[in-house]
Structure formats: structure tokens, C-alpha cells
Amino acid sequence: MRTFERARTLPRAVRTIPGDVLKPETLRAGLRGAEVVFHLAAVRAIGARASEPARMRRINVEATRHVLKLAAEAGVPRIIYTSDVRVLIPASPDESNYVKTKRQAHTEVALALQQQGAPLIVVCPGAVYGPGDASPLGRLLRGYARRRLPVLLGADHAQSWGYVADIAAAHRLAAEKGQPGQTYTFAGPRLSFREFFTTCAQVTGLPVPRVWLPLKVNGSTARALNHIFPAWAEMLSYLAGQPFLADDEASRALGWEPRPLTAGIKETLEWIQQQEHV
């Protein structure tokens, strides 16, 4: 949840307007006269509690419908919606509730509005990492920085890695140079988890995970747990899931150039270590 307390770190020139994405009537003031609208609000939870899937559907799908539709009705000339590269590949039976809801929002809301002529540009980031990350990936990196990651699953599970500042810059490029009706992927370097943590070790000198459990064990364990501990099963399925890869050729045409993975990892782990000291 975004609050005025958290907004205090924003530059002085930023004017904040309260609104609730689940209450369309509260959004109109913020949309009035806007030159561009960025919609990034979403609930992302892997291994979620039983109550989370319904909340994810409300925010990831219905709230997206509210914001994008109202922005189009308000005459906003450029609307940027943040989707996910995983919605661009075929659905898998065990994909997370987060991906299911983002897939639904992408196809049933965003693409539908584009077909109706809304000035909507869709941005699909890959795996986003960097300072301030509270996602499962961020927790993995904090565990690595503390030398508490001796065992990990999914060594060969590949992802396209995008540093958070580069993904932010990608959104600005999409707003300035992107073409309404188009979808742009901003993915970054392609590496497996093993390759990613090997790069972490090269940058920091910290050891890589000593034991990598194979994906087939991971996947079968997830299925066995599904009826008993569904949250654990979802986390394991995430690590054993489909490759998280994308082609970002179109985004490179906009002038997007992600930084090398070594630079992004260095900045991320330095930030984590500073937070540990604090």
C-alpha cells in the first residue's frame, strides 16, 4: 500500500493526490489534465495465504480495469500499463496466482482497450531486481548476502534480469517514444539462477549456494504438497516453472540499454549490506 508517509521521500515538486484503485470515483481528480498515466499497482505474492488470490484478482485485474478505462475516458493522451513477460508465453498448469491474474489483466483488459483504440502502451518487464526489493527474489538476495543460502532449487531455471533503475527508465522511454497499441518487453540479460549467483560470487567474493536441488525433485515435491501446504507448493512451482525469458529487440529500438549484470548486482548487494548495518 502506498501512503503519504512513504511519499515523503519524493522530490518536493511532486504533488500527491489520494486515491484508491478499487474505488473509481477517487481516481478522477488525479487523471484530470494528465499528460501520461502509469499504472503499476499490483499485488505480487508467491506462496500466498489462502486469502491472497481473491485480493490479487481485485487489484491486479479489476483495479487495472478501473484505472485504464477511466484514463481513456478522461482523454489522457498516453497510458502506460505494466504487465509481465510471463504473460507472453503459454500458460502452464501450475503457474502462480500472480501470473494468472496478470495474464487475465493483460489479455482481457489491456489488449481489449488497445483494440478499442485507447492510447495504451503495454510494458512487460522481466525479473526485476535491485535496491528496495521486497519480493521473493529480494529475499533470496538478502539471504545470499547474509551467507544463509547454502541450498537452492532450480539451478537451470532461466530468467531475463532487469535492474530496477533500468526498468524505471524503460517506462519513461515507453511514454516518450513508444507507439500506442504496442507492447514492449524490457527484459535484460538472460541467465539461469546458477549463472546469476555465480556472477554474484564474482562481484562480491561470497560463496555460491553449495547444493542445487534438481528441478524434477522440486516439481514433484510441489505437486505432493499442493493439497497440504498450497503456499509452499506455489513457491516451489515458481522456482521449477517455465523459463522467464523475453526478446527485447523492440525496446532496444527505443534506445533502451540495460546495464551489465555485474554493475546491477554490485549496487544491489551494497545496498543490502548498508541496510544490514543500519
What's the short version?
The protein has 278 residues and is an alpha/beta fold. The chain has one domain (6-277): Rossmann fold. It contains ten helices and nine strands.
CATH superfamily: NAD(P)-binding Rossmann-like Domain
- CATH architecture designation: 3-Layer(aba) Sandwich
What is the helix fraction of residues, given as a range?
40-55%
> Whole-number average pLDDT?
85
| CATH C-level name | Alpha Beta
| Alpha-carbon distance between the two ends | 24 Å
CATH topology: Rossmann fold
How is the main sheet built? 4 strands, parallel
For the largest sheet, list the strands in their spatial order.
1-2-3-7
Number of helices: 10
Strand content: 5-15%
From the alpha carbons, calculate the radius of gyration and give it in angstroms: 19 Å
Q: How many DSSP E strands?
A: 9
Give me the secondary-structure category. Answer: alpha/beta
| Residue windows where pLDDT falls under 50 for at least 5 positions | none
